[in-house]
Write a structure and sequence with these properties.
single chain; 495 residues; alpha/beta; Calcium-transporting ATPase, cytoplasmic domain N; Rossmann fold; Calcium-transporting ATPase, transmembrane domain; 3 domains; 7-stranded mixed β-sheet; 3-stranded parallel β-sheet; 18 helices; 13 strands; 54% helix
Amino acid sequence: MAAGRDRVAGKIAGGTAQGPDGWRRIDAVPFDAAHRYMATLDSAPDGAAQVHVKGAPEAVLALCVDQAVSGDSTQPLDEAHWHAMVERLAAEGQRVLALARMTARPDQDRLEAGDLRGRLTLIGLVGLIDPPRPEAVEAVAECHAAGIRVKMVTGDHAATARAIGARIGLRNSERVLTGNDVETMDDAALAEAAAGTDIFARTSPAHKLRLVAALQSRGLTVAMTGDGVNDAPALKRADAGIAMGRKGSEAAKEAAEFVLADDNFASIAAAVREGRTVYDNIKKVISWTLPTNAGEAMTIIVALFAGLALPITPVQILWVNLVTAITLGLALAFEPSEQGTMRRPPRPREEPLLDGALVWHVVLVSGLFLLAVFGITFYATDRGYPEALAHTMAMNMLVVLEIFHLFFIRNIYGTSLTWAAARGTRIVWLCVIAVVAAQFAVTYLPPLQSVFGTHPVPLQDGILIVTVGAVFFVLIETEKQMRLALGARQTGTRP
């Protein structure tokens, strides 16, 4: 609280502002972003009426003609002094309110905004401290690392906004645009200014709408938070409107796509991380399914066109698809966030799931599948193995390749040759164990051998199959590391 603090405290204690001793509200001018103050017409116990005003200092000071000194004494308003006090408090990160009063007419029962101009007596200033949550500071830093530009749009004083912006780690916190600045700019100038400015002060809901439109005009994806009824148009216009669940109005919640249950900015950063994880897992499932299915199909297609015997029987192909699709493919849907998920820039909104890198991966993996399956088949034939054993070895080769490909695809943005990557998750290992157990059963149990036409695989040949799978893993991992290093060199970032 600034100068005038003792006088304000004395009036509150005496019942003038909000005392419980018989004061009654007769009428009010509600707060509105257009005039930025609230005024009440109150009746005292002795029948006298007073008007009490609180609001933005510059708005209230413009209505004042004098200032309180002591008791009912007044003196001419020292506007420069009070503006200096506002700047000092705001620079400390405090939200500043001005308090004023005036004596109402004895028979007055209505209060209009026009009744206040040039008639108010300034009582003093109140500074309110609303320190940012520690998790909000961390969330802002996390968003910056993820390539998300965080901007603060507030109705607070410019100096207050600047101080709070610096505390929470906003970039370019020294530059502040006010609502008046926004109003003087055309759409092109505002789009240019909005892109380089992170703090907007003394703004109205209309300014928020213009800022959202200005950022979108530059091709940016905009998420905006709001809680008031007047925020609804901007929430509706934003690509992701986020309403406050606790203090937000129903209009804001209905206009927004999301409702923030705890009103905590850190929850937005957590939602971005979860959204990226979900997208990554969808891409992983597709990146695992397409190459493995293509590899299975290519073994049949090449054999048919080359006039060769099928390396694997149709029923065995069905078995492989059945046992892997319902286990290995689904396991990827439960993957946690990759390390560095929030250190990647946002993907372009028009980027397709099936991009050039994935097409190349499908070609590479299906080609390696083809070489491995036909290689193990030719190896079995050359050694004079029965046809059933050659088919069984080819079938197990497919399954082993798909297991190694699963461990590769779990880390599409980083190395898979780490202990954490090899350790995997519980669901991954449960699925791998289930697939391995099923393969042992169909390979070595006589009842299943008769159904699927399989033959027991000798130990040394089983080791050979696993070794080929390991070589396959090393090859695709080497290709990935080369591709990531090339991409990092082109973008100037760390791989």
